[in-house]
Amino acid sequence: MQKQNFAPVPELYVSYDSAQKLKVEAGELPSHDLTPRQTCDLELLMNGGFAPLKGFLSQEDYDGVVNDMRLADGSLWPMPITLDVSEKFADAIEIGQDIALRDQEGVILATMTVTDKWVPDKAHEAQKVFGADDSAHPAVNYLHNQAGPVYLGGPVTGIQQPIHYDFRARRDTPNELRAYFRKMGWRRVVAFQTRNPLHRAHQELTFRAAREAQANLLIHPVVGMTKPGDVDHFTRVRCYEAVLDKYPAATTHMSLLNLAMRMAGPREAVWHGLIRKNHGVTHFIVGRDHAGPGKNSAGDDFYGPYDAQELFKQHQEEMGIEMVPFKHMVYVQERAQYEPADEIEEGVTVLNISGTELRRRLQEGLEIPEWFSFPEVVKELRRTRPPRANQGFTVFFTGFSGSGKSTVANALMVKLMEMGGRPVTLLDGDIVRKNLSSELGFSKEHRDLNIRRIGYVASEITKNGGIAICAPIAPYATTRRAVREDVEAFGAFVEIHVATPLEECEARDRKGLYKLARAGKIKEFTGISDPYDVPESPELRLDTTNVDVDHCAHQVLLKLENMGLIAA
Ligand code: PPS
Of all protein residues, whose CA lies closest to atom 26 belonging to ligand 1? Predict the structure, then answer.
């Protein structure tokens, strides 16, 4: 049986006085601006959430973690916590040198003594840690398309915690939680990890888990970074607060964890367990498909539904935290209560609403029954996710120059304006290059920057309830995916591949550019001397050869209607 350890977990912070001195000295050091994910990692490194780590992994620790889930000293650690940087920054750093680590506003949070610098084998890391080198996995996509190419490792000296302005009273460091449990006399605590709103099934499950383990309950939701497309944490926290009232008073506590999840299934479950252990927890709920990343590019699950429970079980003794396996709870209509699915006799009526079905009902403004969720939770979700016909969205055309993107986009804009209801903005390739990206050329780097800018503006328009119509070439699939993720945080992203064949675009040659490109007078011309990744699964594909513009725009409207984005 797990005994609670009330002793503080080691932190990496120096004293207040030393921090003031160090901050001044660190101003002189080469400095690295942390990415949002690195900032989350640093916070948990510094506050002891990632103990026994003392900094970003050295190469030896990294190799051990990737290959065997162990640090060089043999301690169990399943997740590489690495400081990825650009080649340019890495080239300027000598081994043994101190660097300053700054948040996105430039505040110095820590210093790090660089002991290691190496170029990782990312395909190997993906295979070993995430089980497949498949970019359909969000963390593999991050690894290949967002993380820098070089890793720096070394011990960290903490100066100050990252600043949070939201839900301050709900955030606790591992030692604050330990002190709270001590003060309340909670000797056995079972933690529930979540990145989703809680519904009745979760409440029933967590309540039962606490009873079975004879423990108090810690609702420990992740508010750092979760899976792209998840309900934002502001909404979730308001939902959690509503559910908290449903538990018997003084048995349950809620605390927010600023973790950046990787969706690594089994390895992630073990990692979550170690993090909870550091927070003074004795028991941990592991459910079906814990921290699952969804489907791989072949349409299959990345991990088996109980792989996470298996791996956790193998290591729980060593971790010093006991697993409470999640029972899949369903609603039994005849008895009007939730029960574990595997304990229900045949012949009774079992009700269940999947995540996909819930999203559909929210999108279409349909009823969500009281047996499924609490009215307060549904109200919060409806506030954030009004029916799709009232939300903003982005239509993103992509295709060769001369394929007809701008023409169809213009026609679509006019039709949408005629319908009224939402403001419409057209971000056409040429217009953007004049106004937003006038200094950019057509190298991969510049094209990516151009598309990310369009994505940023489109996501802001979508967030504020408008319609953004974008019509750049956008030749790179990874960049289009990144824009999709930016937009989908706020509303629908409708990708339309204007698939007019290159021969037809070249035959049209409206601007005379193909001729110049063939003659080598324009370099890096898409389709002629520069690549174009054909979209694999756009929402719609159009070919404008021999089809009039009006018909194409109408097809887009039908698609929007079909997706519930405009009223029929
Ligand atoms: S990208 O790749 O998405 O950033 O391109 P985009 O911003 O849509 O700009 C494409 C328009 O710029 C003109 N142009 C070129 N296109 C492709 N390759 C090269 N090298 C190039 N040089 C200039 C061209 O007119 C494109 O306009 P559209 O509307 O697509 O015909």
Answer: 401
Candidates 151, 159, 115, 156; CA nearest to 27 is 159
User: What CA–CA distances, in Å, run from 540 to 408, 478, 522?
Assistant: 13, 18, 31
pLDDT tens column, 14-66:
999 999 999 999 999 999 999 999 999 999 999 999 999 999 999 999 999 99
Q: Which atom belonging to ligand 1 lies closest to the Cα atom of 440?
A: 4
- Rg (C-alpha) for the chain, rounded Å, is 26
Peptide bond connecting 52 to the previous residue in cis, omega within 30 degrees of 0? yes
d(CA 561, CA 541): 16
Distance in angstroms (rounded) separating the CA atoms of residues 412 and 554? 8
Q: How many residues does the chain have?
A: 568
Q: Which amino acid is at 336?
A: A
Active site residues: 194-196
Of the options 3.40.720.10, 2.40.160.20, 3.40.50.300, 3.40.50.620, the CATH number for the domain spanning 168-257+263-330? 3.40.50.620
Q: Are 146 and 89 within 8 A, CB to CB?
A: no
Q: Say if 16-158 and 168-257+263-330 have the same CATH topology.
A: no
CA distances from 548 to 138, 188, 498, 511 (A): 39, 70, 13, 20
User: Considering the entire predicted model, what is its pTM?
Assistant: 0.82
**Ligand 1 pocket, CB under 6 A:** 401-402, 406, 429-430, 433, 442, 447, 450-451, 472-475, 511, 513, 522, 524-526, 530
Question: Which backbone phi and psi does 256 adopt, to 5 degrees?
Answer: -95, 135
